[in-house]
Structures are given as C-alpha cells and as structure tokens.
Design a protein that fits this description.
Length: about 425
C-alpha cells in the first residue's frame, strides 16, 4: 500500500522485542514504495481484472499526510480510509489514533494496516496490530498486512512468516486479514504462495488500465491505483484506492470481513490429435452471459452463451500444472461466477484437476497408457478419495470425483495401477481449490 498509515500512538504500549526507533524508516516503509510503479504487462494476455461494477473511493494514510480535515475529505466523496499502525516493531505511527477518531466522527469506514518486516519478530508485529484493533469497531475493515519487504529473506521464509502473522491476528480477532501486495512482488519474493488465497486482496498497481493481479487471487477487493492523488482536506499527495463494490457493499464487507464470492461453475476440455484444446464452461449459472478463459493468468479467449461458452486454444509449449480459470460475466460486464482447474498441456499422459460444481472436483488422467487399469488419489498425504461416480477408492475410469469440505491449496498424489493390481508409479500435483 503506498502509505497505508496505521499507528498505536495512544494505544496501550506493548512490550516488543525491538525498541521503537525515533524516526520512521524512510522511504520504503510508506506502503507501496516498491510495488505501485509496476505497470504490469500491457498486452492482451495480461491477467487484468476490472471491477465487478461500481467502486467506492478511499485512501490509505500515515503520519506523512499531516493534519487531515476528515469532514472536507468526506464531502469530497471519501468512503474509507486505511491507516497505518506501524512499520514492523520499530516505529509506531503517531497519527493512528488521531486519524482513526477523526475518520469515525465523519462516518468514514476505517481500516488498519501494518508494514510487515519479515526479518523482525513476527509475533510482536502481530500483537501491535491486535492491540490496534481496540481503536476500531466491529463495522470497520479487517486488519491488513502490507507485504512488500523481504528483509533479505528467501521467498519460502517470507511466505511462512506472512502465514504466521495472519494466523496469529486471525486467531485473536476472529477476522481473516487482508493482504496488500503487488503482482510481481508476490510472485517473485513470496514465491506465489497460495496459503493466503482465502484473504481479500489489496493490489498495488498504478495504471490507467485495470490492475494485473497475482495468483492465486482471481479478484481484487481493494486496488491502490495512485500514490500522488489529491483529496480536499488532505494536504499534499495521498495514496488513492478503490473498493470493488458500492458503499453498501463496502459496509457489508467491513461488518462481515469476507470478500465477495462468485457462483461456482464447471470447466472441462478436450485435446485433439493436432494439439489444439477446446475449453468449455459447464453448469454455467443463468446470470452468466460471457465466459473468459485464462491459463496461468493469461487470457486465451472468451465466448458467449450463444457460442456455447467454448474456446479453442493451442499451447506454444508442453508443460505440467497449468492453472485454468473460467470467469463468468453478466450482461453488465460484472463477474459473477468462476470455475478453476489444472491441466498438463502435454501430448502423452496428462494429469487433470477440474471443478465440476461448488467445492466439487474431478482428479484423474487423460490419455493414460493402455497398461494403466486404475488410479487412486490421496489428498494432503492422508485422505484416500472415494470416487463419487463408482463408489470405489480405486477407480478404473482413471478419475475420481469428490466434494471438498476444505478449499485452498491441496496436494494430490495420483497412483496408477496395472491390471494385476500392482502399483506402477505416482504423479504429484498441487492445486488451489475455490
């Protein structure tokens, strides 16, 4: 976030491992300093996601923004403000409490974010955010973790520490934190982690186009689109944000702490001997008028209901574990549905994982060798799936269908068996279920 300000100036002091510094670590502690300048890909294949419909204007602020006249800002159309709590454990923003009180007095929806320092004490940082929630109300936004610094740590470590912070804050507040980040930072510096896929995404990207968002998210809840905006009542330049929905939607999100959801639909495909794939959306909700197909965040085509929601596509190269998404839009252009899957775009034996209905997925093999008589699928190393079609755990149709009580990132081990019942080998894939 470009200057998402939140502080604990008047909150009961917490004992933290790192003593507070005298000054704010400038400049990267201002949210989005290293994120917002990423314009993203400008070609038609970029994973650009536009708003579902109307949006609500907001800002994110820190003490850099000086004395704010919240009444003037509200009159200028400000719907929400996200305020910095701290930069890690080393600097508590001195304007947090003042801003929070001023915004509340004008009926502005408030939120708190923390510039996360992965190399610092994670629990101490989380505790600062937890304490800050005492200055907010039940109808304010969930807490936000600002993920844009590595502390010279590797992606796997950064991802693990983000998860540690999120889990601690969620356990204490009962709310799923928002994740603020940029596409390329999340992809390259957090390793494209799918662990926070249940969190609402606040994406930083300064562009005149729709934002280009990181996987595993398929929708943005907030978008920081400028670091140099002007708003009546706020001196100087300020970070500008949009919420993906109306003011009523924003208040509903703030009260419930859950991102807007889409209706589920299925997705399938066939591969011709020429190598061309035909993708199709299935069980499409009545409200859907158009379906856009994406592979690894790149748009491969779109089709209307009249065209049967089918798209033909030929891959330039063979590869395993290609993420597939079908996004359904209504006649106004608002996204209302989604179906996801995973495909091996190879000529020979291919693993597939595809959504067929709400929380229901089919996992199996395409073009399996003739000496493969059946498969078994184990999820997360423990759960042997029973195929809903055959009622068997060892499926001779070389696919299993099952409903999942828990979504998010799941690992799959697909073991193949010969006609004599001997195990031939195991294929492993990881997919994010929605």
């Amino acid at each position: 976030m470009q200057r998402i300000a939140r502080s604990l100036a008047t909150i009961i002091a917490l004992s933290v491992a790192t003593a507070c510094t005298v000054g704010d670590p400038d400049p990267d502690s201002r949210a989005g300093e290293g994120l917002g300048d990423e314009g993203g890909d400008t070609g038609v294949l970029a994973a650009r996601v536009c708003a579902d419909g109307p949006t609500t204007f907001g800002v994110d602020v820190s003490y850099y923004n000086g004395t704010i006249d919240w009444a003037k800002a509200k009159a200028a159309g400000l719907g929400f403000a996200i305020i910095r709590v701290s930069d890690g454990t080393g600097f508590k923003d001195p304007k947090f409490a003042t801003y929070a009180t001023g915004a509340r007095a004008q009926g502005i929806v408030r939120g708190a974010y923390q510039f996360f320092r992965p190399a610092q004490d994670v629990n101490a940082q989380a505790d600062l955010m937890i304490a800050a929630q005492a200055q907010l109300a039940a109808d304010d936004l969930p807490p936000t973790i600002d993920v844009e610094a590595t502390g010279n740590l590797g992606p796997a470590t950064v991802a693990a520490r983000v998860t540690q912070w999120v889990n601690r804050v969620k356990a204490a507040t009962g709310r799923t934190p928002i994740v603020y980040t940029g596409k390329y930072f999340w992809r390259d510096q957090v390793g494209g982690s799918t662990t926070q896929s249940d969190s609402a995404l606040w994406v930083a990207q300064y562009t005149s186009l729709c934002p280009d968002i990181p996987a595993p998210w398929t929708r943005w809840t907030f978008w920081q689109y400028s670091e140099s905006g002007t708003v009546a009542g706020i001196p100087g330049a300020v970070d500008m944000d949009r919420f993906n929905g109306s003011l009523a939607d924003l208040r509903a999100f703030a009260s419930g702490g859950a991102a807007m959801s889409y209706q589920p639909m299925g997705i399938t495909w066939t591969r011709a001997t020429s190598g061309q794939y035909t993708f199709a959306a299935q069980a499409v909700p009545p409200a859907v008028d158009r379906v856009d197909l994406f592979v690894d965040d790149y748009a491969i085509g779109s089709a209307t209901r009249a065209a049967g929601f089918t798209v033909a596509y030929t891959f330039n190269a063979a590869a395993e574990s290609r993420r597939v998404e079908a996004r359904g839009f209504d006649t106004s252009g608002k996204q209302v549905a989604i179906g996801v899957g995973l495909i091996d775009s190879v000529a020979g034996t291919a693993v597939f994982i595809r959504q067929t209905a709400a929380a229901t997925y089919e996992i199996g093999l395409e073009r399996a060798p003739t000496d493969v008589a059946a498969i078994e699928v184990v999820v997360d190393g423990t759960w042997l799936i029973t195929d809903d079609v055959s009622g068997q755990t060892r499926a001779t149709r070389k696919a299993v269908l099952s409903h999942f009580a828990r979504l998010g990132a799941r690992s799959f081990a697909i073991t193949t068996y010969g006609a004599n019942g001997t195990a031939r080998g195991t294929l492993r894939r990881t997919a994010t279920l929605r």
